[in-house]
Write a structure and sequence with these properties.
Number of helices: 3
CATH superfamily: Ribonuclease Z/Hydroxyacylglutathione hydrolase-like
Oligomer: single chain
CATH class: Alpha Beta
Strand content: 5-15%
Distance between the termini: 40 Å
Shape: elongated
CATH topology: Metallo-beta-lactamase, Chain A
Helix content: 40-55%
Mean pLDDT: 92
Radius of gyration: 17 Å
Low-confidence stretches: none
């Protein structure tokens, strides 16, 4: 979405989910399409270039750290396009790792 602050427009992404480090991507009988859906999400995230990155979980975007830096003054820490790109790269790395591990040693149903 787009928001305006102090006369300037910003592109904002609010991510509602990430890939857990113990996610079951292979042989997931409750959600057989999970691996494909996360791969699609990662591809979509990679097309986004937000100025501001927010998420459903505060640790995704370092809410506590940004709040402290905001209170200290200086530049607005919420303007963090690099933070979003890092989050996406980490999710993609995690997806690749999980897929390789689970294809090698598939979880049982």
């Amino acid at each position: 979405m787009n928001v305006q602050d102090a006369g300037r427009w910003y592109d904002v992404v609010i991510a509602c989910g990430g890939l857990q480090e113990d996610a079951r991507l292979v042989n997931n009988k409750n959600y057989p399409e999970i691996a494909e859906h996360f791969q699609q999400s990662i591809a979509k995230y990679k097309t986004m270039k937000p100025d501001v990155f927010l998420a459903s979980h505060s640790w995704f975007f370092d809410l506590a750290g940004k709040y402290k830096r905001l209170a200290a003054g200086g530049t607005n820490p919420y303007i963090d396009p690099e933070g979003f790109q890092t989050w996406v790269a980490n999710m993609e790395k995690n997806w690749n790792t999980l897929m390789a591990e689970q294809k090698k040693n598939p979880p049982s149903n």
